[in-house]
Amino acid sequence: MFRTTKRIIQWCGEYKKRLYLGFVCAFFATWFGAAPTMVAAYTLGKAIDSARQGLPFDKNLIGLSFAAIVILVLLRYFFSYWRAKLQESIGYEIAAKQRIKIGDILKRVSLGYFQENSAGDILSTVTTELSSLEYQGMRIINEVVNGYINVVAIILCLGFFSIPAALVAAGGVALSLLFLHGVSVQSEKNAPVNEKAVEEMSGATIEYVRGLPIVKSFGQEGASIASMKKACNDSKNINIKIEKGFTPFNCLHLFSLKLASVGLVLVTAYMTYNGQMELPIMLMFCMFSFTIFGSVEAVNDSAHVLGVIDSAMDKLEKVEQATYIDQNGTDITLAAYDIEFNHVSFGYDSREILHDVSFKIPQNTTTAVVGRSGSGKSTLCNLIAKFYDVNAGTVKIGGRNVKDFTCDSLLRNISMVFQNVYLFHDTVKNNIKFGNPNATDEEIIIAAKKARCHDFILSLPDGYDTMVGEGGSSLSGGEKQRISIARAILKDSPIVILDEATASIDPENEHLIQEAISELTHGKTIITIAHRLATIQNADKILVVDDGKIAQQGTHRELIEQEGVYKRFIEIREKAEGWNIDKELVTSVCFLVPISF
Ligand SMILES: Nc1ncnc2c1ncn2[C@@H]1O[C@H](COP(=O)(O)OP(=O)(O)OP(=O)(O)O)[C@@H](O)[C@H]1O
Q1: Is the ipTM reported for this complex over the cut 0.95?
Q2: Of 331, 395, 334, which is closest to residue 527 (Cα–Cα)?
Q3: Mean of the pLDDT values across residues 306-326?
Q4: CATH number of the CATH domain containing 290
């Protein structure tokens, strides 16, 4: 328990001073909270004493007691206010900074990190784990530290009046600590189980929400809802089991403190009876005895979540210790933008995907990367952007190994347009501005016009200020793609990596996208995963990827003369595009038939 408390104090870092001052305030607040009862009890004792001795009661004492109680209550609220002011926002302030820090860390890790750590895992670290720290951390620390400081002070105070009373209180607290240790052990044991259940529930929910379109289109619940239901049930059962495990320790902890309170009454009553203690003092302790351990009772609640907090901190430390892919990188400014792969081998896991790949892409040329699905085209592009580290060989841009760059300085030079565009839940304007946060509104509009999306943006309800659904869900595939091209135009980087849209985009959108791409790629070094024959044939260089190797490279003219993968690929594409054209003709004819009649 004290180890976790120490960890939370360390976690507070630069806020420690405020935390310690808060402890001082909490200490005074507790004592000023207890003092009115003691004053009242003492005054009552004096009144009884006077009555017993037949002496007139000193009326000034009532006035003095009343004034003292009012002042003590005010002081209690003064210190409570300052404790809250100093301590309560610390958790939120640190958690906000830590979330931003984790965001930065995730930006700098290899994409392989996200395979080893599931989305549910990362999500629960940033939300649930950090939330438990920000909400509970300060409360726990206040209860544990303040609780035990108070107990020590109470025992010392009791010792001042009566050593036996102090010993009874100390015995009760020691016994309660024993049972509290049981609560902490249970909490530490249960936290990972509970956490795993929460992770599984988050993962299953993400999976379910992502798969909803498929679930709906197939008109059935699917496996995802079954695993979500199972995860929810598991979580419920685990929580019930955990609570049952805590119950005996909770009861014994509270029982030991109540026993100490009763013991205190008995000891002080006995001492008063024997004339070893004055009646007012005895009454003061009797009234105080059942609230005296209140601060230690509260520690019980904290002990329940100590394990959760401990394991949340373990997970945060794990994320913070993630290895950056640009650990040894420096900020490099490039003078040239040619790209070179030199005997590169790479695998996402133990399976090697690219085998001894070598090629050169001269600056300001267009290179089409072609090959069967799964041959390794996207993998190749991912390595240019250093999303992953190569297993062997080197990838160089402008003669510099990509390993030597920081991610920021490397990606400053590269724009990527993916087939599956992700737009943020923000305005259209801010989604485009993502390419260049310093861009003015005029520059954003110019980029949007070049990307052929200005007109459709103006037709949206709030124009450029229209909110885009998460992931871009409120826009069509072609619209999203053009916005992502506008974003890349605004970034204006010298290297552009494009994953060309496939036949799934309709002809009109494809035409607009092609126009947008021409604006984007003008005078740059282009690497395009090409599907359209026109792009492939017009490229300065074609890289034919087959089973993770560069099977052929050259221009269209050179390659079409050779028997090999490329020739077969082109024949298949010609058939596919021919079929597409026929299909469009058929569709148009069918569409026209009713009109002509
Ligand atoms: N993140 C990943 N983890 C493990 N294996 C992966 C990962 N991404 C791709 N692969 C595997 O690497 C191989 C090459 O994939 P890649 O996406 O580079 O192919 P591609 O040629 O771009 O395919 P497509 O044209 O279908 O997009 C495939 O066998 C794929 O299963």
Answers
A1: yes
A2: 395
A3: 83
A4: 1.20.1560.10
